[in-house]
Predict the structure.
Amino acid sequence: MSQPTIVPVALPNEIDGVPLSWEPWDLAPIMSHIPYDCEHCAFDGEPATALATSTEQRGRWTAVRCRRCQATTVTTFQPEAGRLGRYVRVWSAPPQPWTAEVSA
Ligand SMILES: [Zn+2]
């Protein structure tokens, strides 16, 4: 029996020179700004998510990892990106080989 698991590929300790402190991985709550279908493997289950904060810059960074192919993206809210601000992808990790079918 094989179930999708969270592989602990390291998250970046800093992005754009901002040191980050990551909280443990969790399953994603439903959040409208996070795409739910994996763009790489079309896995439509809940992704794993982790949040980071920094002691040097206000803000919140969100990592989202597909539990099948482990593709990971980190987005952050950038107030300066537009009048209302927007979420910007600032880091990503490519998908890993995965097994689409598990035979007993
Ligand atoms: Zn995936």
Remarks:
- The chain has a mean pLDDT of 80.
